[in-house]
Amino acid sequence: MNLILKLIAGIVGGILVGLYAPLIGVELLYTAKEIIGQIISFTIPLIILFFIASGIAGLPKGSGHLLGKTVGFAYGSTVIAGTLAFLVISAVIPLFDGGLTFEAEVVTEVTSFIDIEIPPLMGVMTALATAFVFGIGMSQLQLETLKKVSDQGRDVIDALLAKVIIPALPFYIAGVFAEMTVAGTVVDTLQTFGVVLIAALVMHWVWLSILYVGSGILLKRNPLELLKNMLPAYFTALGTMSSAATIPVSLRASKANNVKEDVANFSVPLCATIHLSGSTITIVTCAMAVMFLSPNMGVPSLVGMLPFIMMLGVVMIAAPGAPGGAVMSALGLLTSMLGFNEGAVALMIALYLAQDSFGTACNVTGDGVIALWVDRFSEKQSA
Q: Which candidate, 22, 52, 173, 332, has a CA 20 to 30 Å from the CA of 180?
């Protein structure tokens, strides 16, 4: 919640600077935005490399069918949720076309005092392929030394996110909104913010309703009771904005739904790092909104968007526990697969962080459904 307040302060501060500060003040803020943007671009492949490699290498061995089923349910839930978000937003957002617009690419005379470039060490797809090669290799060959290096690399990037990038984001967003204010496009952008955020929140609740009602019917359980038992995890995630920090409450809630202790102890912590259906809904919803309402960006069909959604379910494996970790992991795909420019990326970050706690709450509440199904299939296997 503190981060959201800082984000709002950044938006308001950027608008005030754009309205009332002399041009040199706007350019100072713009320079900060450019530097922070370069650091973010440099960090994206490292997030993908270290977090995915470490996450794959850390998957528990010897769990056999439980591991496969949990990963399968989690990935399936993420992809289906993202696809549903695409279909809904494709039907809803055009209704506002003409009344709302995004200006993801702003043209102004504002320039940066420092012309700096920090090229990434590798491309996004190279980082992803490398993460899978080394992650699977470390897991299969039990390379503990290399896994330790990977884990420590993840810790370094996590600290960079938590101590540098995330705290700097309000200044980054302020620079974007100051530039928009100078260009005269900020009012339309702010109007669109509310519509997109409401759409994302409604999609979270619709998806959870589908999961719990469908599972309740198929498992012959009361869906309201199942959902009621998971509410403590939902509200805890709203406050912590972290799936990992909510694990103890999620475990207790899943056991209250009569999930066997060994299944809950295995599936809930694993899903906290690989199941991000709520985050996927938000990213797809916001990305589609930016593309629909930006005059210079094309809108892909479902066939064109599905590869992005499927890759999104992969790159967010073991997304950092810091607030905003999921969208930071997804930035590489937004730029490489959807062609997002710097302005569109800044809007995505602002939109995502504004609802991060609700996306996390959707993630952990959905974990309870996966635990129910893994428990059910484990009973059938043992029988």
A: 332
3-state secondary structure 195-249: HHHHHHHHHHHHHHHHHHHHHHHHHCCCHHHHHHHHHHHHHHHHHHCCCHHHHHH
Length of the chain: 383
**By C-alpha distance, which of 205, 237, 176 is closest to 213?**
205
- Distance separating alpha carbons of residues 274 and 318, to the nearest angstrom: 6
- Name the token pair of 172: 């980054």
Cα distances (Å, whole numbers) of residue 286 to 160, 223, 259, 294: 25, 29, 34, 12
Alpha-carbon span 209 to 215, nearest angstrom: 10
User: Tens place of pLDDT for every residue, the chain, 383 residues?
Assistant: 566 778 788 888 888 888 888 888 888 888 888 888 888 888 888 888 887 788 777 766 655 566 777 888 888 999 999 999 998 888 877 666 555 555 555 545 667 777 788 888 888 778 878 888 898 888 788 888 998 998 899 889 888 887 888 888 888 888 878 877 877 666 666 766 777 788 888 899 999 999 999 999 998 999 999 999 999 989 888 766 777 778 888 888 998 999 888 788 878 887 887 888 998 998 998 888 878 777 677 777 888 889 999 988 888 775 655 566 778 888 888 888 888 877 778 778 887 877 778 888 899 999 999 999 988 887 665 55
What is the pTM assigned to this prediction?
0.77
214/96 Cα distance (integer angstroms): 31
Q: What are phi and psi of 85, to 5 degrees?
A: -60, -40
- Say how far apart CA 126 and CA 244 lie, in whole Å: 28
DSSP β-bridge partners for residue 100: 97
